[in-house]
Amino acid sequence: MAALTTDGANVMDGTKMKNGELNTSRTESPAASKVVGKKKYRSRSASASSQDSYSSGSYTESSSDEDDVSPRENLQKNSSGSSDFCIKRISQHAYGRREIEIAEQEMPGIMALRHKAKDDKPLKGARIVGCTHINAQTAVLVETLVTLGAQVRWAACNIYSTQNEVAAALAESGIPVFAWRGESEEDFWWCIDKTISAESWQPNMILDDGGDATHVMVKKYPAIFKLLKGVVEESVTGVHRLYQLSQSSKLCVPAMNVNDSVIKTKYDNLYSCRESIIDSLKRTTDIMFGGKQVVVCGYGQVGKGCCQSLKNMGCVVYVTEIDPICALQAAMDGFQIIKLEKVIRQVDIVITATGNKNVVTRDHMDKMKNGCIVCNMGHSNTEIDVISLKTQDLTWEKVRSQVDHIIWPGGKRMVLLAEGRRVNLSCSSVPSFVVSITAATQALALIELFNAPSGRYKADVYLMPKLMDEFVASLHLTAFEANLTELSEEQAKYMGLSKTGPFKPNYYRY
After folding, report:
1. How does residue 272 score in pLDDT terms, banded at 50, 70 and 90?
2. Per 3-state DSSP, what percentage of the chain is helix, strand, and coil (rounded to 5)?
3. N or C: which end of the chain has fewer CB within 10 A?
4. Which pTM does this prediction carry?
């Protein structure tokens, strides 16, 4: 969420918020089954298997079933008798537990950290509000934080990415979790509020993905926010908003920018997206990639990963960029740098990966050819102007879960995935191994901020210490049976390094 001034002004775009209203672009596109204004929407029947096929790595029906009863109206209890959670169905906890166990096998780093620190309990006394995607991999992180001594309350940062059975497994284990797939906008904010406001609970840390929990805390609970030991943020959007808070002197606690740590940027943003973009498009559209023309908007780490895999699949890939350095990288990698307007009529797939807003506008979509697939790999759902498609002249046709046809009066169809939200987390899954790297980084950032002596960190945004990056990498090398070469005393002295690291200066670009 963007930072807010005391009178409700949005620092990012200058918009005002109505009395006490928590409004945001993240949930401005309601669930697909709703009618917005006079938008025409018809639904095509789909088999149960097609409904389940995308399911964000979920292999039960729970991630795609649509119940008429809201979880907020359905009081449930786990086997211990606790009802301090709000999820779809607690009865599916066994399925979720199996998925978590599978994820643990492919997450060596966070599991190693759990094993190394479980006796020391470095997070004992930490009360963490979490707002992230809720899937099997995130559950491994959540349970690691609890093992290390923390108390947690958790909500989802995306209305479509929650695996319902995993949320059930967390609730069954006694973790207060408030999330289900297909939340409404009101549900979204209600769930985050439940993680902050509870009886006998006062959080002292935030683990955020996109800045929404931080936003609610700043806007609605400023007194609690001032007492926090720190905020850990893992997304481009959330980090941008933290810097806005800092620049406007509204950030009164230290914050750790995990997104720009070397280990997260290089592995989660690049390698994860390189694999998950293909999986997402295959699951939702069954498309053949060879010979297709694709434009990727943005050549940061996410864009690089997308372009690499699409090129390897035989696509003709174009890149749009505003940054001359990134543009030069794309050119040296063999991609043509072009303005979106020049190729919009001919491309088969449009992918956004910028973190910005209105990258693909209604004018662009009006000019697209019939059958063009449009999706987003950036964090925020603002990159594609979905709101401009909710007009009387266009018809929305639901093909399957997370796949909509937008039909123009002349019969042209555009395929929109996940209503412009992150397609890999809404429509497929991400590699557990890569998530292990991010999860270990997040856990170490929380440990660092929670245990830091007074005065080490001021009310500002900090990058992860280089030594922590190297430690996270070392936790994962064992999975490859890798053996690092050790510096001799003479070599270390010659390079001016410690034999145990860090091995690169902060200004080094990997």
Report:
1. confident
2. 40, 15, 45
3. C
4. 0.76
